[in-house]
Amino acid sequence: MNSILQTSFKDDTDGDLIVRVRHMANILDNLDAYKTELPPWIPGGKQFREHADRLEEVVNLPGSGKTKDEERTAARENTIRTVNFAVQYITMYSEHFKDPSLLENIGLEVKHRTYSKNRKLPGKVEKFIAKDDAENSGAIVVQVNNGIGKKGSVELQITEGDPTDEVSWRIVDYYFTCKFHVNGLEPVRRYHLRARFKNSGGNGPWSDVATVVVS
Q1: Does 39 share its domain with 141?
Q2: Which of 30, 81, 142, 214 could serve as a FRET partner for 67 with CA atoms 20 to 30 Å apart?
Q3: Are 193 and 139 a contacting pair, CB within 8 Å?
Q4: Closest to 189 measured CA to CA, from 158, 212, 162
Q5: Domain range spanning residue 179?
Q6: Which residues on adjacent β-strands are paired with residue 129?
């Protein structure tokens, strides 16, 4: 079961959306996820307030007609898009720290997505190859058998410690192809890797552990 944020605002009036976005702006100012330096493309409270002001400005323009309606629609869509960008960032932050409570109390409804018991889980990664990338220092090449499917991915984990110690494993990334590169590793070091398929039904079993020494 995954926690997701409800970001459909089709039932919100323009006034409701303006109030909601300004309320969220105040919340974002105090979120842990926003207390570190962020790249400019992750919107925060400042951008939320700018969108709310713009939407309010357009709504309060005198008169009516096609031009005003188009401006209002554009302002509304830009506002919702910015909210969605912020929600994606907050969700990733929550996933990284494995703390779904971070999604609560930010002005949006939290829904819990469940999957049908009849949904087929992916099978085991039977073919799992990890080898040193001879052309690039501190890199390895990973290949899995084609069991991803149209809506699946591969979760890759790595450890430099004891592979029998679950705590030592950490996620490298999620991939949507069967062959990919992992960069930024320390040369002349032994790494253990494992992979599993993921789809809308959940996680498949882990592959056998592969070990590689990076050059």
Answers
A1: no
A2: 81
A3: no
A4: 212
A5: 128-214
A6: 143
pTM of the model: 0.50
Tell me the per-residue pLDDT of 164-186, one tens digit each, with 9 for 90 and over.
999 899 999 888 888 889 999 99
Residues 24-41: what's their mean pLDDT?
A: 89
Q: Are 122 and 14 in contact (CB under 8 A)?
A: no
- Report if residue 66 sits inside a domain: yes
Token duo for residue 115: 């999957």
Whether residues 105 and 190 fall in one domain: no
- Are 89 and 145 in the same domain? no
Instruction: Please name every residue paired with 110 in a beta bridge, in sequence order, or none if there are none.
Output: 5
Domain boundary, last residue among 56, 81, 113 = 113
Number of independent structural domains in the chain: 2
Span 54-70, pLDDT tens digits: 999 999 988 878 888 89
Q: What is the DSSP letter of 196?
A: E
Q: Could you tell me if residue 139 is inside a domain?
A: yes
Contacts of 181 (CB under 8 A, 6+ apart): 133, 136, 139, 140, 141, 142
For 16-38, letters b (16+ CB in 10 Å) and e give ebbebbbebbeebeebebbeeee
Residue showing tokens 């592969």: 210
